[in-house]
Specification:
The complex is a heterodimer. By secondary structure, chain A is of the alpha+beta class. Chain A has three domains: 2-98, Beta-Lactamase (2-Layer Sandwich); 104-281, GAF domain (Beta-Lactamase), CATH 3.30.450; 289-527, PPM-type phosphatase domain (Phosphatase 2c, domain 1), CATH 3.60.40. Chain A contains eleven helices and 26 strands. A six-stranded antiparallel β-sheet of chain A has the order 10-9-8-13-12-11. Chain A starts with a strand and ends in a 20-residue tail after the last strand. In chain B, helix 1 packs parallel to helix 2. In chain B, strand 2 (44-55), helix 2 and strand 3 form a beta-alpha-beta unit. Chain B has a domain at 23-109: Transcription Regulator spoIIAA, CATH 3.30.750. Helices cover 30% and strands 21% of the residues of chain B. The two termini of chain B are 16 Å apart. Chain B is built from four helices and four strands; from the N terminus they run βαβαβααβ. Chain B is an alpha/beta fold. Chain A binds chain B through residues 313, 337-341, 382-385, 387, 407-410, 427-430, 433-434, 437-439, 457, 461, and chain B through 22, 54, 56-58, 60-62, 64-65, 68, 91-95, 98.
């Protein structure tokens, strides 16, 4: 028998054999009985017999036969679409096209799109925060929502407890520290170590310790530990749990988990690095906080420190005031500046301040003390140096006697009561580079109301002014100092700071440190402040 | 200097232009390194400071570093055309003598064949311009 599924455009009738059709074909008569079927159709639907009603597949049997439209459905484990052509005698020919491969490709494409969307969303959510805890929470939540029933994020730690963020099957986040060694869970220690890279590891849920399974989770069906690869540093481990009634992880899901872990790891290690950097900056800032100075041994001290606004320019300006001790009868003031900025400068600053502190008993001989500091600071690794000014201060009657020594530092200014400003006649070699150094100490006496002003080059090199790029310079500083004649130490510092701030305006600047040593006006010896703080630190 | 071999001193001249500070000192160090490692047995390094702008503490630290490393390698170090601002900085920090006095082990700086100046080009503010080693080369080398 033949039937004609379609009329060619020529209008000529061509006939096609059902038997020779390249796909399963079933011909149904108007009442749904099988009029004819080819071998392919017989093989596909073994129950079908010519003359019998078509009962299977049900979706084809139920298809409208009067005005048929394409239908589709499962046949066994495959998927077919059925294309109808109506014959003149009312019979319908159903051409069955196997669409299993196409359908699974389409499904895979949709799944792939879903995964890509998930990864994109994950990246956006993860990168929205540079806070490590927040990153761990986002990772746990996304993993629990998209990859598993519950998820734990464990961050690497040197401590004996493991910081864990969990998102349970109810999507509730919890944070805890688990007092367990990482090796209590197979594969966890390796995943946390981060190197060498280890693949995700399946764990027999029965061996999982209780803390790994959220309360009320029920029976664990599958459990996988995936390392979170960081930017050269281990970022942690991701634990995914599925319940017993859920399917185990497919290969595609596992690879998705790996891609997600890479993003989460990168975000977490970026957050961790940022947190470390931040804590270093904070430590630096804290170390650089100016000491509160006050009257010591009948001499006024006031200091002002303005850290560079721009954190990367925080440098190494420092000052210390060491009150007299048994070993050193004078107050020793040190104000200095370490070359460079950031962590290296801060380290050098700490080193030089500690060395100076240890050498306090030598303060009667500035040159010797500087030689010792120079020897202690010299290293073959670099030529970073410090410049500083030392002032040994002693009250003598109503006056203040100073010994001032500069080691490569701008000389202190002496502000006389009549408004004249002198540079102290001192000079010397910077500290920390040259094998031998020299220095020249100036002896200066301050009458009541007179001030010795120590400053760092942050003042004189401050750029600003009407054009924004002019250095404040020595002359402007001297003029500003002259206006401070007769003022108490604190007022002198405030005035100098104010004038420089106005000069800088909103511009960038390095650290600026100013310190004033003033002989009090009309002071009585009773003004001596006996309090001796061990050390003022800047 | 190996005049007996018929060659002049192999000298490298770098003309520094712009500011030498925290942001630019790394580049100067690198250029000096490249120039000295360029082969040919460099014996003298000249830094021409005529075009220098501001030199900050890191800039000075860098000059000290170059001075130190050339000293270790037996290369003479010269700062040429030191302007008033740089001179003031070097004097204030007590480094003028250190940086400008020829080392005892060094060959005398002058007289001698002149240092070749090959296009000491400025590259704008904040940049140090480096040139390849100048100076007469051995014939056929």
């Amino acid at each position: 028998m033949t039937s004609s599924p379609a009329r060619p455009r020529t209008g000529a009738v061509s006939t096609v054999s059902v038997a020779s059709a390249p796909c399963p074909v079933v011909v149904l008569d108007a009442d749904g009985h099988i009029a004819e079927l080819n071998d392919a159709a017989a093989a596909l639907v073994p129950a079908a017999r010519p003359g019998q009603p078509l009962s299977s597949p049900a979706w084809l049997a139920a298809a409208d036969r009067t005005r048929p439209v394409p239908v589709s459905g499962e046949v066994g484990d495959r998927w077919f679409s059925a294309q109808p052509s109506v014959l003149a005698d009312g019979r319908t020919v159903w051409w069955l096209l196997d669409e299993t491969a196409h359908r699974s490709t389409a499904a895979e494409l949709a799944a792939e799109r879903g995964r890509t969307r998930f990864l994109t969303e994950a990246s956006t959510a993860l990168l929205a925060s540079l806070n490590l805890e927040r990153c761990m929470e986002v990772t746990a939540r996304l993993a629990a929502e998209h990859l598993a029933d519950a998820a734990l994020v464990i961050s690497p730690t040197a401590a004996r407890t493991l910081p864990v963020v969990a998102c349970d099957h109810r999507r509730e986040l919890s944070r805890s520290t688990v007092a367990e060694a990482p090796d209590s869970v197979p594969g966890l220690a390796e995943a946390l170590r981060g190197f060498p890279p280890v693949p995700s590891r399946w764990i027999d849920p029965a061996t999982a310790p209780d803390w790994l399974v959220p309360a009320g989770f029920g029976e664990v069906g599958s459990l996988v530990i995936t390392p979170l690869p960081g930017l050269g540093v281990p970022a942690g481990a991701l634990v995914l749990l599925r319940r017993a009634q859920q399917d185990a992880f497919t290969e595609a899901e596992e690879s998705l988990a790996g891609l997600f872990a890479a993003r989460a790891g990168a975000a977490m290690s970026a957050a961790r690095l940022y947190a470390e950097q931040n804590s270093i900056s904070e430590t630096l800032m804290r170390e650089l906080l100016p000491p509160t100075l006050r009257q010591t041994e009948g001499v006024e001290f006031a200091g002002g420190y303005r850290a560079s606004g721009d954190t990367e320019r925080i440098g190494g300006d420092f000052y210390d005031v060491h009150p007299p001790t048994e070993d050193s009868p004078e107050t020793l003031v040190v104000l200095g500046d370490v070359a460079g900025k950031g962590l290296e400068a801060a380290v050098l600053t700490g080193k030089i301040r500690n060395t100076l502190h240890a050498l306090l008993p030598m303060a009667d001989d500035h040159a010797r003390m500087l030689r010792l500091v120079n020897n202690a600071m010299r290293t073959s690794h670099h030529t970073r140096f410090a410049t500083l000014v030392m002032a040994s201060v002693r009250r003598e009657e109503r006056e203040v006697a100073l010994r001032l020594t500069s080691a490569g530092h701008p000389a202190p200014l002496i502000i006389r009561r009549d408004g004249t400003v002198e540079e102290a006649d001192t000079g010397g070699t910077l500290i920390g580079v040259l094998p031998t150094i020299t220095s020249r100490t100036a002896r200066v006496r301050l009458a009541p109301g007179e001030t010795c002003l120590l400053f760092t080059d942050g003042v004189t090199e401050a750029r600003g002014g009407p054009l924004g790029d002019t250095m404040f310079g020595d002359e402007r500083l001297k003029r500003a100092a002259a206006e401070c004649a007769g003022m108490p130490a604190e007022a002198v510092v405030e005035r100098v700071q104010m004038v420089t701030s106005q000069w800088i305006g909103g511009g960038r600047h390095d650290d600026i440190a100013v310190l004033a040593i003033t002989a009090p006006r009309g002071a009585h010896l009773s003004a001596v402040d006996g309090a001796t703080r061990g050390r003022y630190t800047a | 200097m190996t005049p007996s071999f018929g060659t002049g001193p192999h000298a490298v001249r770098l003309a520094l232009t712009g500011d030498l500070d925290y942001d630019t000192c790394g580049e100067l160090l690198q250029r000096v390194r490249t120039a000295l490692d360029g082969g040919g047995g460099v014996e003298e390094l000249h830094l021409d400071c005529g075009g220098l702008g501001t030199v900050d503490s890191m800039g000075l630290s860098t000059l000290l570093q170059i001075h130190r490393s050339t000293g270790r390698e037996g290369i003479a170090f010269r700062l040429d055309d030191i302007g008033p601002a740089l001179r003031r900085l070097l004097e204030l920090t007590g480094t003028y003598e250190h940086l400008t006095t020829p080392r005892q082990s060094e060959p005398p700086g002058t007289p001698g064949p002149p240092v070749a100046e090959e296009g000491a080009a400025a590259t704008g503010a904040g940049r140090a311009a480096a040139d390849r080693p100048g100076g007469p080369r051995p014939a056929g080398a």
